[in-house]
Amino acid sequence: MNILLVHPSSYFKTRILNEITMPDMPLGLAYIAAVLEKANHHVKIVDLNVVKSKEELRAAITDVRYDIVGFTSTTSNILNCFRTIQVIKKVLPWAITVLGGWHASGVPIQTMQECKDIDIVVKGEGEETMAMLVKAIEAHQDFSSIEGIVYRNKDGQITENKDRPLIHDLDALPFPARHLLPMEEYKKRGFNTSGVYFKRDLYISGIVTSRGCTGQCVFCADHTIYKHRCRLRSPENVIAEIKHAMKHFKVQIFFLQDAHFTQSPTRAKKICELIIKENLNIIWACSARVDTVNKELLLLMKQAGCARIGYGIESGSPKMLRIMNKHVKFKQMHDALKWTREAGIISYVYLVYGMPGETEKDIWLTRQLLMDLKPDFVNQSIAIPYHGTRLREMAIEMNLIKHDQWKNYSFPYGNVLEYPGSDKMFKLQGKILKDFYTSPFFIARVVKNLRSAYQAIFYFKVLRIYLLGFFLFSFGSETSVKKVLSGLSSRDENE
Fold first, then answer.
1. What is the structure's pLDDT at 304?
2. Which residues contact 297 (CB under 8 A, 6 or more apart)?
């Protein structure tokens, strides 16, 4: 069968943002494509984040007669996803439309009710389910025995089948079908992501070495699919994929898309040792928890090519960490950042604001921690009560969900939660962002680390984006930001 897999564009993307952010490579679709190709189907992937025009899109989806069109979804891009499905359904009215991903898995029935052009929703991991679904469609069989789907039956009624168990052996999956992805486009944009330390003109790719997380953070929707379980690929299998990507796609930069790479420090150590043993000249970035790293492991990661680590420290308030169910200690944060800096690895920290019970004091404690830790970069986001999370249950119990529209489920378009004093606290968060990126230690670090005019341009772009973030937190709406930044980025906002 002819199968088209579509990656909808992100909800909020401007030219300047694209220039400093890693393209959201649809590895999930590439895994599904690899499984379907193995079953002798013709598969194509279209990534709308790199499609440049409507004409290019039309040409991409009409080159052959597609029988099935699959889409992936997150809550932040679900409105764009709906629009994309509707447009493609008009062009390919005969095609069966299938939607998977985080959002569809979390609210499958509601998703089908909101978009009548969706024929089937795949819940959870899609590889095995899509293989069975395509086989049934090709044989004109009914779907009643296929686990992990929601579909419209012959009477048009929405029917939900039982869930499919998680894939037991990740090593048994084929490597993602990178040959179907626009690797040249990722190369053009990807080096900008980390221009601080990456060379230009290198091929870049995501890679997944594990699925799931055993953490219990109340705001995380990871368990919507992975059920608080973590499954690890073997170090040997990970290395085999790295070598395959290097040989066939010339990839030298890898972004590990795991929830956190060091869930098993022993396995992380083994992967690093194999990279060194095999003399693989790669650069890579990952996420980790501060309570799963040590000085020796970080030095080994650096030797194996790790250039950047992101840590979710979330808050500087002990009370808020308890509410978030984030079981880390401040000493672990300080140690991890200190060891990361000593190893020569760039550090990002991630903060979450707007949790139920947060006060102005909690926010100032976070600012103090941030200034003490002195990471290389900081990203902050507003707590979003995604479906299936404990945070959503808490918000409902406390009657805090005031703006329950999909457009409010992703920064920077707004916030779902509202509580006394929230407007003031959002402005404080913007001030913290500004304070960090204009602090003497950050500016001194930038000047010290500059190696080229290219890096200077990169830092300028980063500053523009974080100033945009400051205005978003301070003024609270996209319209207000556009007015404030009309002279600064009018061209970007119109693209």
1. 98
2. 262, 265, 268, 269, 272
Beta strands 377-382; 346-353: pairing state: parallel
Each domain of the chain, given as residue ranges in start order, spans 2-160, 194-493
One-letter amino acid at 313 equals I
Paired with 379 in beta bridges are 350
Q: b or e along 407-426 (b: 16 or more beta carbons within 10 Å of the residue's beta carbon)?
A: ebbbbbbbbbbebeebeebb
Tell whether the torsion through CA atoms of 262, 168, 147 and 85 is positive or negative: positive
* pLDDT score for 472: 54
**How is residue 323 written in tokens?**
């509410």
Same fold? 2-160, 194-493: no
pLDDT, averaged in runs of 10, over the chain (495 residues): 92 50 83 98 93 84 95 91 94 97 95 97 97 97 96 93 96 98 82 50 91 92 89 98 98 93 97 98 95 98 96 97 96 98 95 91 95 92 90 93 82 67 78 88 82 67 62 48 36 34
Superfamily of domain 194-493: tm_1862 like domain (3.80.30.20)
Cβ neighbours of residue 46 closer than 8 Å, sequence gap 6 or more: 4, 5, 6, 7, 57, 60, 61
Of the candidates 410, 412, 408, the one whose C-alpha atom is nearest the C-alpha of residue 467 is 412
Three-class DSSP category at 312:
strand
pLDDT of residue 443: 86
pLDDT for 41: 98
Helix (H) or strand (E) holding 279: none
How far are the Cα atoms of 133, 287, 302 from residue 273, in angstroms, in the given order? Answer: 40, 19, 11
Amino acid, single-letter form, for residue 337: L
Measured from the Cβ of residue 116, the count of other Cβ atoms closer than 10 Å reads: 13
CA distances for 114 relative to 85, 154, 422, angstroms: 12, 19, 30
Please tell me the CATH code under which domain 2-160 is placed: 3.40.50.280
pLDDT at res. 455: 67
**Is the four-CA dihedral 46, 48, 51, 54 of positive or negative sign?**
positive
Whether 458 and 195 have beta carbons less than 8 Å apart is answered as yes
